Automatic annotation (TrEMBL):
This is Metallo-beta-lactamase domain-containing protein. Residues 13-193 form the Metallo-beta-lactamase domain. Residues 191-211 are annotated as: Disordered. Keywords: Hydrolase, Metal-binding, Zinc. It holds the Pfam family Lactamase_B.
Length: 211
């Protein structure tokens, strides 16, 4: 049984998830900021990270990528449609806000090019391309443990914003309905902000999906 730890990090409290197994290895999802807090958790739980996986490349999900990649010597996975977002503030959203520094992160080590199964060490997951919030948004589904990490595609009672670079509400709703709401009803969906939810909860109570 996999374990999930959540840290709310950075200026907009984005969720970073640490998924770990019995062998004390783990995956880091969306390390948005505050690398020290992530390192403290890994040290406290005696976890060895194998990779960093990004649901997408907006600034609030990438701020600690370079520091963690250097400290642990691990690869970064990202969908190929956002390969340029990491280094360009006008694409990753940081350039939109005068109060924020420009976020620039080195290129991803592994580019996701298709929906497929992915194995990293003992971890096995299914990849779903779920664009709309951003062009390369990816959801990571762990069927054996019945949960998915969905980034800013879907929230409890809401959906991701679509006013940043290459966003589209029509595309986003299509992704949600075809990739996330078709998962088993009681699957836990872990979003980029806020609490977890399930497909059945969102089918019945999400106002954006009642249209």
């Amino acid at each position: 049984m996999l374990k999930i730890d959540r840290l709310e990090l950075g200026p907009v409290q984005a969720n970073c998830y640490i998924v770990s197994g019995d062998a004390k290895q783990c995956l880091i999802f969306d390390p948005g900021e505050e690398a020290g807090k992530i390192q403290e958790l890994l040290k406290r739980k005696q976890l060895t990270p194998l990779a960093i996986l990004l649901t997408h490349a907006h600034f609030d999900h990438i701020g600690a990528v370079d520091e963690l990649r250097e400290v642990y010597g691990i690869p970064v996975y990202l969908h190929y449609k956002e390969r340029d977002f990491l280094g360009l503030p006008n694409l990753n959203g940081s350039g939109k806000y005068a109060a924020l520094p420009d976020y620039r992160v080195a290129e991803a080590d592994k580019l996701i090019t298709e929906e497929r199964s992915l194995e990293i060490g003992p971890f096995k997951m299914e990849l779903y391309h779920t664009p709309g919030h951003s062009p390369g948004s990816v959801s990571f589904y762990f069927p054996h443990d019945r949960f998915a990490i969905v980034g800013d595609t879907l929230f409890a009672g809401s959906i991701g914003r679509t006013d940043l670079a290459e966003g589209s509400e029509q595309v986003l709703l299509k992704s949600i309905r075809e990739s996330l709401l078709t998962l088993p009803d009681e699957t836990f969906l872990f979003p980029g902000h806020g609490p977890e939810t399930t497909p059945i909860q969102e089918k019945h109570h999400n106002p954006f999906l009642q249209r």
